[in-house]
Structure to design on (787 residues):
């Protein structure tokens, strides 16, 4: 006998949907083939609500809510698409492009990049903001992987996968605000860190910030789908 | 500790004070200490001993008018001396019982008139490190009453009835917050005092902690009883070393007198407080970031809900209030909620402490009833603008607030009135500006503050503030176009509505409020490449003829 599950019904974009009480709006939307853009969210990792792309409107709430951490409620009416939301999403993507040095044509993950495909799906045709062009380092000390901070969007997927799935917590964030940087150990070169060489961070990285040395030359697909699978294995045991 | 013992301590303390004919109180808050009031106190003690007068020299907390520091108040006459130097000690001691030293006398009737003291009632009157002096001024009476005569529900009811709203800035009803934490399920609950005051130009919480720390401890203990917490934390920023050292002493004293620990006031109630020192991040004043910092994690906010009242410190229900909110608790319990609700306006009750700074004659700490107009504060209490300059704007609410122009001088202070005018109450910083300030430059200053204090977690705040700062710099440098201004306005909208926490949501406020009231200054920078106040780089630039034509 499994314990009774509390079920809620709600409306997303005019569609009546049902959900378990512990589900988020994002999960339920995806189950019902409603697309909500995300970058920091990854199935199988904890959610931090940092990229703000999944913001949705909830009826009778003055604020916008990140769908990835918004728990479903009975009778909730959620709108995931509106001109206002689209404008915010486009601007956030523009802010990301202008933040560091994102040049798709010379990037190893060109055509396999989540930032790039998200921009396409949201109709970002150009960036209105001036590129900041910061001078950032590339850590190629590791014999298998490279960390290129110029392409990092600070989604912290690498930090979470290393901590929550691999259990090594090699990655973390240092500095604050616009100077934030993901680092290995206490800012040691990646090769000299406590890295277990598992490569999970590289596969969950949505951009070309973390990539595999053996796959240079603009053909670098990533396979982040292993995370829910590993979680499932762990639950069964 | 019983109420008889409490009374006995108060009586003993009063009897001790009667042994002296005069009391010379020297301000020992940070503002006066920075002007060597500690050495002044030593000198006064030395002179007092030499003169043979029955005179007690005492360190006290802030007396308010920091601009005239170091301050000395002689009791029982109440004579105030300002800008007292070490060498003046002999003159002051010699004048005891005679006519006051005229050249040092500070005439502050106008400054004190109109102020109403609740939070600062003991400030400048008692030695902050002496718990018995606090007890002699009705200290811990409220805790005793709450523990022995009231149920936790009754305490919350009293706070709700008083209409007290959070003094940290948001103005959330304190009673409602307490009620939520009290109802939340959890074997362990926590009470946190937020003393991570970081707004530029604000020093209310620091002064309260330096001047009357026992009042805050008492407020926290009452709160802990009301919500069912057994453990408390002071989260104080490291930039306040004096406040921290006074808190350390005060917590020890409170434990010695049995107001912290187990079996408090002879009941089964147990509560103790620890100090946690912040590492200099403004964002740690945000409650979820503050909790992360206490837990030893990176000081970053997390999405709410769940609210700390349900899942806070280490996942337990947690009550977080600001220093000034806790400082209001004991008087409310002592005098009843009706008394408190009788002060202030319809929806903003009680008094508010403000740190009055900037281009104003009387820089200092003031406490005024809600509903007072900005004009009364700035021109009556504050003494107006010095050097015959013209008032231009007053900035309230720190980097989350806005600048209000002269046309809003008659605005009566309340949470709602300030928000509808495009600013906010904030924690109580009040920066007065005259016509030598450039409002674009002011907006740029606050944006720079938000940019460097952004934690970097969410995209709009991290990169949006940096982009807005660059655009404002461009305007200040006289290199911006109307397209840049439109982009700035658009970014304000995006950052305000998409940021994760209060820092990002309110970061555009200084820009939005200056755009609302001083748009002509922005346009002057853009169209004529000229800074009306002569502050910005564009007004210092030598331009070639060609550039001027373009």
């Amino acid at each position: 006998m499994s314990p009774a599950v509390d079920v809620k019904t709600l409306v997303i974009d005019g569609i009546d949907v049902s959900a378990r009480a512990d589900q988020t709006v994002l999960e339920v939307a995806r189950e019902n083939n409603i697309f909500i853009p995300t970058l920091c969210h990854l199935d199988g990792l904890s959610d931090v609500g940092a990229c703000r792309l999944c913001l949705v409107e909830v009826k009778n709430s003055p604020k916008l809510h990140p769908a990835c951490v918004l728990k479903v409620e009975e009778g909730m009416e959620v709108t995931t698409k509106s001109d206002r939301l689209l404008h915010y999403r486009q601007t956030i993507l523009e802010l990301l492009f202008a933040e560091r040095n994102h040049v798709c044509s010379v990037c190893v993950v060109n055509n396999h990049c989540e930032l790039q495909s998200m921009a396409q799906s949201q109709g970002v045709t150009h960036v209105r903001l001036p590129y900041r062009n910061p001078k950032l380092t590339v850590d190629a000390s590791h014999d298998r992987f490279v960390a290129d901070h110029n392409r990092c969007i600070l989604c912290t997927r690498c930090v979470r996968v290393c901590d929550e799935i691999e259990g090594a917590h090699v990655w973390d964030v240092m500095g604050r605000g616009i100077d934030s940087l993901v680092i290995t150990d206490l800012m040691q070169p990646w090769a000299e860190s406590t890295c277990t060489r598992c490569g999970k961070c590289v596969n969950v990285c949505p951009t070309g910030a973390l990539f595999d040395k053996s796959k240079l030359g603009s053909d670098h697909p990533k396979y982040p789908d292993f995370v829910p699978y590993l979680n499932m294995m762990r639950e069964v045991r | 500790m019983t109420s008889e013992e409490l009374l006995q301590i108060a009586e003993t303390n009063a009897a001790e004070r009667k042994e002296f004919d005069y009391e010379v109180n020297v301000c020992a808050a940070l503002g006066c200490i920075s002007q060597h009031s500690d050495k002044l106190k030593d000198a006064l003690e030395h002179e007092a001993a030499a003169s043979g007068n029955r005179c007690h020299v005492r360190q006290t907390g802030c007396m308010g008018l920091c601009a005239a520091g170091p301050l000395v108040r002689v009791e029982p006459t109440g004579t105030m001396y300002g800008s007292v130097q070490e060498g003046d000690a002999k003159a002051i001691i010699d004048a005891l019982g005679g006519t006051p030293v005229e050249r040092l006398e500070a005439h502050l009737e106008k400054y004190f008139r109109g102020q109403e003291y609740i939070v600062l009632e003991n400030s400048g009157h008692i030695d902050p490190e002496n718990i018995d002096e606090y007890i002699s001024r009705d200290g811990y009476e409220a805790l005793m009453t709450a523990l022995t005569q009231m149920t936790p529900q009754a305490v919350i009811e009293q706070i709700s009835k008083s209409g007290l709203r959070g003094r940290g800035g948001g103005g959330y009803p304190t009673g409602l917050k307490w009620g939520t934490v009290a109802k939340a399920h959890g074997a362990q609950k926590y009470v946190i005092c937020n003393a991570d005051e970081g707004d530029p130009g604000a020093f209310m919480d620091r002064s309260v902690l330096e001047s009357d720390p026992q009042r805050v401890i008492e407020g926290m203990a009452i709160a802990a009883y009301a919500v069912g917490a057994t453990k408390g934390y002071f989260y104080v920023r490291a930039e306040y070393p004096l406040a921290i050292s006074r808190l350390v002493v005060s917590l020890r004293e409170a434990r010695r007198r049995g107001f912290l620990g187990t079996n408090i006031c002879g009941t089964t109630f147990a509560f103790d407080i620890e100090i946690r020192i912040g590492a200099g991040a403004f964002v740690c004043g945000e409650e979820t970031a503050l909790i992360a910092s206490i837990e030893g994690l990176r000081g970053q906010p997390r999405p709410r809900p769940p609210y700390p009242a349900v899942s806070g410190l280490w996942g337990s229900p947690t009550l977080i209030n600001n220093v000034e909110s806790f400082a209001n608790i004991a008087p409310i319990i002592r005098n009843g909620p009706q008394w408190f609700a009788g002060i202030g306006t319809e929806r903003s009750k009680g008094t508010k402490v403000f740190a009055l700074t900037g281009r104003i004659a009387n820089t200092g700490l003031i406490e005024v009833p809600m509903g007072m107009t900005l004009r009364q504060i700035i021109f009556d209490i504050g003494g107006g603008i010095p050097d015959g300059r013209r008032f231009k704007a007053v900035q309230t609410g720190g980097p989350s607030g806005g600048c209000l122009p002269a046309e809003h001088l008659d605005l009566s202070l309340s949470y709602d009135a300030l928000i509808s005018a495009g600013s906010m109450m904030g924690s109580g910083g009040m920066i007065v500006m005259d016509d030598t300030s450039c409002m674009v430059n002011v907006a740029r200053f606050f944006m720079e503050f938000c940019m460097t204090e952004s934690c970097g977690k969410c995209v709009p705040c991290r990169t949006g503030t940096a982009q807005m700062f660059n655009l404002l710099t461009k305007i200040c440098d006289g290199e911006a176009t109307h397209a840049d201004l439109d982009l700035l306005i658009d970014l304000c909208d995006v950052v305000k509505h998409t940021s994760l926490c209060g820092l990002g949501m309110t970061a555009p406020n200084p820009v939005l409020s200056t755009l609302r009231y001083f748009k002509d200054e922005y346009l002057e920078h853009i169209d004529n490449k000229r800074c009306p106040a002569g502050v910005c780089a564009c007004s210092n630039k030598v331009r070639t003829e060609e550039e001027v034509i373009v």
